[in-house]
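User: Can you fold this complex?
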Amino acid sequence: MSLSAPKFVQPLSPHHTHRSIGSPMSFHASTPFLGSTHKLRFIAPIKLNPRSPSTVVSVSDVVKDKKRKSTTNLLITKEEGLVLYEDMILGRSFEDMCAQMYYRGKMFGFVHLYNGQEAVSTGFIKLLKKEDSVVSTYRDHVHALSKGVPARAVMSELFGKATGCSRGQGGSMHMFSKEHNLIGGFAFIAEGIPVATGAAFSSKYRREVLKEADCDHVTVAFFGDGTCNNGQFYECLNMAALWKLPIVFVVENNLWAIGMSHLRSTSDPEIWKKGPAFGMPGVHVDGMDVLKVREVAKEAVERARRGEGPTLVECETYRFRGHSLADPDELRDPAEKAHYAGRDPISALKKYMIENKLASEQQLKAIEKKIDEVVEEAVEFADASPHPPRSQLLENVFADPKGFGIGPDGKYRCEDPKFTEGTAHV
Amino acid sequence: MSADPKVFLMGEEVGEYQGAYKISKGLLEKYGPERVLDTPITEAGFAGIGVGAAYYGLRPVVEFMTFNFSMQAIDHIINSAAKSNYMSAGQISVPIVFRGPNGAAAGVGAQHSQCYASWYGACPGLKVLTPYSSEDARGLLKAAIRDPDPVVFLENELLYGESFPVTAEALDSSFCLPIGKAKIEREGKDVTITAYSKMVGYALKAAETLAKEGISAEVINLRSIRPLDRSTINNSVRKTNRLVTVEEGFPQHGVGAEICTSVIEESFGYLDAPVERIAGADVPMPYAANLERMAVPQVEDIVRAAKRACYRSVPLAAAA
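Assistant: Here's the predicted assembly.
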């Protein structure tokens, strides 16, 4: 597929009627890349075996063997399907509640919602063990929820209360949970990628240097299309492939970075191609279909666990809301939004489960009701929780409490019981 | 931009999005996409591109969505922009402006709230400006763009929404303020309060409160962190004999530290009380609203410090 060289002068004015996704553009021939694609491109060493495009997308030898053993040709069992459905409904209801709470003034600052992208989070994170790590960007509420952080802890964190997962210190963009191995929550995009690569490095180090033989923890790094223009991304692709680190790089390509279209900012918009340039497989998958994502994720995570190195997975997805709750979202074409709204991952999974008799309408409704109650309870819990006490302001600046140095009386400041009572410097 | 075709604007979301905080609204329509460039999210890349363009005589205005993101490009600001004129013995000048919001906004967390005035203010080869009012912003930005040296222009997100009275002189198209000159926003005779950016507003409110208690405070709007207007500050302290410096950034090695030292070095004999330094709390900015309020100086803190400098008794620290 050829791309004519993009012109330096972007021929767009603010009144330009925005082109919808499918129409040809001045520097981009019509392409199978955008829109749903049933082709999955693995570059060597995994061979591609195309099958019927109905439900199965990714095939590798390992996956094909597993399929022969199962009695049905469905991708998931009933239990798995219910787990996936519940997780996506939790993500969606939670984010909708966040929007309500923001407009009521209960949370503040920057809030970035994940509506529409649930398939990526659920598809990947539900395959991970508790010890596997997840690193995300500021759009991290649903990654936290999928990884197992309780909804009430996430909601309290958003309200800035002491019972939040970061005790109110971090906020929407900085969700951390050591217990669930969610190591952030980073506000600068691409900042999380080297950190994730480091987490993968530590897993490999523990296995090989510290001889913890069963340490096969995998790290999954989530980030967006805008991040793929940043230098840190390329540096980490190089090092992860060089050192064969157990990491999966997941690009949630929702085509927009605030108001900057992916096509306007990237010389070659097909991000999956950048993997093979560094010697790792690059995969493109339809991120609006949780089953397809899950298939690819299985393969990528297993690869990492076996020690074969990193994978770059590009999930084509879409965010139904604006970049953040403060974004007027004027630049996106309504036709594009409608196109993707029609491919809502939750409706797609619901349809699949009902058609294949994995669950009934009532069972799914019962799950939705249960999740509504969970989210309501989370809000009540967060409302009732206390604000952080004054003393928390000075806590945890250093892991070593002596970090604040020696006070005027010659003793360590941390030994003064009054030290944590006020601000450090007024 | 209308006066000089070599001036162009480059940054994330400055064009079609009309600016992340709507600062560059309408510019794309007026000057076209060749002069208002939307960049990918590549701070190091586009800051470097700006510096290279400046080497060859163009006048880029590089916008960082917040100055926190300038940390990804700080190598170019310091090493390729600030130091070039010196390293090349004057052959290369870098007429570039780096601008964007600096300091804390409301509830945006630790990675979006740092104040960079003291870091950039320490660097020889850079000029650092911090406007407060609309008049400051207009005059200083014009001066910055016309200046043949790299200028770091630290704005403030919360000040974008505030309105200020503007004189007719300021609206004139050639209105320009000198770089390196502070402004005395309010005359007084008992204590000198120096501040920059958002803290000037707080200092003025504190001065109102102090006036009711019989303390006449002189408020200096620094406007220029580098070069610092030491003579205005020292002359003011020689008149009032007391100093309170206010800033939002971290206390150690901050702007206040430099001002206090300058006053002690040059006007020690005139001081009637120890210098008072107010800064943000020595912690990364917390997210929770009550903790955030405690981490940033408030008007009551300035009032208390001014009273301490005047040897009045003060109540205990304000409650959260």
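Residues 74-384 of chain A form a domain with the Rossmann fold fold (CATH 3.40.50.970). Residues 1-70 of chain A have pLDDT under 50 and may be disordered.
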